Amino acid sequence: MARSVEAPHGAPMRLVIRLENRAARFADDRRSRIWLAIAYFVIAAAATLPVMFGGGTAMSRIDEPTHADYAYRVSHFEIPAKGSPIAKEIRDIWACMGQERYALPPCGSNARPWQYPYDGEQYNWAHPPVYYAVVGFPARAIDAITPLNFVEAARITGTLWLASGMFMLFVALRRWRVDPAVAIIAPLLMMTFPRVLHASTTVNPDAVAPLAGAVAVWLAARLFFDDDRDWILPAVFTGLVGLTKFISVIPFVALGVLAFARAVRDRGWRGLTLTDVLLPGSMATAVIVPYLMWQAFQAPRGNQWWMNPLVGINTRDVQGLPGSEWIETLFVGFNLASDYYIQPPLDIALLVAWTRLLNVLVIGAMFATVVAFAKEPSRRSLGWLLMVGVVLYPLAVQIQAYGTPGIPQYFPNPTGRYGLALVPGAIACLVMAAAKAGYRRVLYVVTGAGLIVLGVVIAAG
Length: 461
Description:
mainly alpha
C-alpha cells in the first residue's frame, strides 16, 4: 500500500492512515500471527472475564446447568443418559450461583434433584461429547488447584474459544485477500454480537460456533477463491464441528449446497463428475453418520419412559403435516444479530439499539455482496453462503423438533443461537461490501462503535 499524503487530513484521520500503513507492513508470518493470536486472547479475556465474574455470574437459563453437568460427568469418565439426574456437585454450585427466573434451594442445603427446575434432570444427554470433553477435563484440573468451582473453571475456556474464533476469522479474511488492517480489525466485531458474548461466558457448546463459522469462511475461500477441489479436509472439519454440536455445521452444509449448485450451473446435470459429488457427499456423510451412530448409542441408555420436560415449553404440537409451521419460520434466521439472549444485567437499552443497527448492516451486506460482486462469482459466494445458511438453520431446527419421540413438535420461534456459526460469515460479508463500496474505513468506525457499546454493557453489568 502506498503511503498516503497526510497533510490535508485532521488528526484522527492521520492516526488512521498511520495505523493502516503500519498494518500494511504486517509480515503475516508465523511469528506475527502468534503475536496477533495472543493479542486476540488478551482482548477476549478483557471482554469475557468481567462478565463471568460480574454481571453474568448467575447460571444462564440457556441450559447451562445441564451443559455443566455433562462436562462434569465426562471429566469423570461418564456419559449422561436420558432421565439421569444432574450431579450433586453441579446442583450445589447451581444453588449457590443462582439462576434467572427460577427459585432454587438455599445455598448449601444439600437439596434433592426434584427440588430444582425440571426435577434436576439432564435433558441435553443427546448432544455429542467432544465439546464437553475438551472443556470438562481442563475445568476439573483448574477446579482442583484453584479456588474456582467447576462451572467457573469451565466458563474460562470460553475465552479461548472466542479468541480462537477471532484469530481464525483473521486467517480466513487473509485467504480472501482482504488487506491486513481490515483483516485484523474486523474479527473484533464478533464480540459485539450478544449471542457470541453469552456463549463465550457460559458453559455451552454454542461457544464453539464462532470458531466453526470462521473455519467455514476459510474453506469457502479455499473452494471458491482458490478453486481447490479437495474434499477430505472439508469433510474432516465438518465431522469435527458436528461432534461438538450438530447445528453448528449449518455453514458447512450451506457450503456443500453451494458447491453442488455451482457444479450443476457450470456443467449441467449430465456433466457432473465424481469430484463434484464427492465434496457435498463427503460433508453430508461426515455429519449424518456420526449423528446416527451417537443416537444409536444413546437410544437404549437410561429411562426408556423418560419424557423431555422442555416439550411444550419452547415447542408446540404439530397437527398433520408441518407445512405451515415450517413456512412461517423460514426467514426468521435473517434476524441474526437482533434475535439474542444475554445475561439480564447486561441487556441494556444501548445494546438493544446496537443489535438493531447491526442487524440492518448484516442484512444489507449480505444482499450487497450478492449484487455488487456479480462479475466476481468467487466473492459473491460469501453472500450466497450466508443467505443459504440463514434459511437452512430454522429449517434444520424444525426437522429435528418434528422427530421428537411421541407427538411431533415445532418451534414457533427458532432462536438466533442456532445460527451462531453464521456470525463470521456475516462479518466477512460486511468486509466485502464495505471494501467494494469504497467504505473500508467505515468498518473501523462500526467496529469501534461496537466495542464502545461492549464496554458500556460490561460496565453496566
